[in-house]
Write a structure and sequence with these properties.
15 helices; 6-stranded mixed beta sheet; globular; alpha+beta
Length: about 400
């Protein structure tokens, strides 16, 4: 049963601002971050669907809020509330981020092996083969070529499908629905419809793995269910996590990271020629790239006092990871890219009980992506006269196209 409190309509006396968005045609971050961190670290924002939320931008606040047990992540079917809707009266988009307590702990235990550093390292040759499978035809294609459509978008999907046990040939079906679910902060109706379809898809896949086991994570979870170590809904939640977060956020980070290296003079060539910098460079790109521009929505289950204001039980809270990762109080030259940055406590993968279980995989995926590009396209550069195309209405920003030549 969902016991989430009903949200407070609004905070009396607190001005409401529009949700900060990156400047058109860029990945961001929004220009307002500096002012908000300095003058209003806990602001009240209006989201595109009309609901309001608390917007936290300072590193220390974001760090505490994302690990605060008084904040949970609501399903898009339950938040924001709709007239006549009873929370929990329809299947929700319950991913690993929404799971709490013993069920969440059981799922993480079941997945600890496949997502470990050792396991991810053992899969690196398969990840590289996926990269080369996509780059083989790209290298020989006409120029300019679209690096997002031809490589940066399908690559994380291919890696995810191989690891999890999702047929890559089904991507034309699940990708648009995953995008609709991920974009539910903008289009709630589409997000909720897509959620129902994704649940049906994952449930059918789990049934198939029960009949025809494979060397993949879904089979592992089915076996855990049969042993009684995991419940069926938790396995469905993991499948939804992979379809929604396991692919799209990776695509965004890769596209923004490559665009950053190609935009800053000499950055691509420097990392290409100094591969020993790769571990620190990957961490810096994860910090620097502002994908998570206020799209992590949490909800308070009890009152929280912060900066002289009261976050009421039921209020939505947006701890802005991208703003925290650019906080000048924590990072020297916070708005600059330093591929040699050693002290880098970025918050991209979260913190606490819900720290991203796929963090090792995400790092490995970005490393293999860059190494494959350096090896196969050493002279890669942006195509003159062909600007990337952006979706400027979304707080999560990455180029939809990236025209390049080599």
């Amino acid at each position: 049963m969902n016991t989430t409190p009903e949200p407070v309509v609004d905070a009396p006396g607190v001005p409401v601002i529009e949700l900060p968005l990156p400047p058109p045609g860029t990945m961001g971050p929004p220009e307002e971050y500096h002012r908000l961190r300095r003058e209003c670290p806990l602001a009240r924002v209006r989201l595109p669907m009309g609901a309001t939320a608390w917007y936290a931008t300072r590193y220390e606040d974001v760090r505490e809020l994302i690990a605060d047990a008084r904040l949970i992540r609501p399903s898009i079917t339950d938040w924001p509330p709709r007239p006549g809707h009873v929370p929990g009266d329809e299947p929700g988009l319950i991913t690993m981020m929404e799971l709490e307590g013993p069920r969440h702990a059981a799922l993480r235990r079941a997945l600890s092996g496949p997502f470990s550093v050792r396991s991810v390292r053992s899969r690196l040759p398969r990840v590289r083969r996926s990269a080369d499978r996509l780059l083989d035809p790209f290298v020989d294609s006409d120029r300019p070529g679209d690096l997002v459509v031809r490589f940066l978008e399908p690559f994380p999907v291919m890696v995810m499908c191989d690891l999890v046990g999702i047929p890559y040939e089904d991507s034309d079906y699940f990708l648009p629905r995953a995008d609709a679910a991920l974009g539910a902060i903008l289009t709630l109706a589409e997000g909720r419809e897509a959620t129902s379809q994704l649940r049906e898809y994952i449930t059918a896949l789990l049934d198939q793995k029960r009949r025809e086991p494979g060397d993949d994570m879904l089979t592992l979870l089915v076996q855990a269910c049969e042993r009684g170590a995991l419940d069926h809904e938790s396995a469905v939640s993991f499948g939804l996590s992979m379809l929604v977060a396991g692919y799209r956020t990776s695509t965004m980070f890769l596209a923004d990271a490559v665009l950053t290296l190609l935009t800053l003079p000499g950055a691509y060539a420097h990392l290409r020629d100094h591969r020993a910098l790769m571990p620190d460079a990957v961490e810096e790109l994860l910090r620097y790239v502002p994908v998570m521009n206020g799209v992590v929505v949490l909800q308070a289950v009890e009152d929280i006092e912060l900066h002289g204001r009261t976050i009421r039980a039921g209020d939505a809270v947006l701890p802005v990871l991208a703003a925290a990762n650019r906080d000048e109080r924590v990072f020297s030259d916070a708005d600059g890219l330093d591929l040699c940055r050693a002290d880098n406590p970025h918050l991209t993968f979260g913190r606490g009980a819900h720290h991203c279980i796929g963090a090792h995989l995400a790092r490995a995926q970005m490393t293999v992506c860059l190494e494959a590009l350096f090896d196969r396209l050493p002279n890669l550069r942006l195509a003159e006269g062909h600007d990337p195309i952006w979706e400027d209405d979304s707080p999560s920003k990455s180029p939809l196209t990236l025209p390049v030549t080599w």
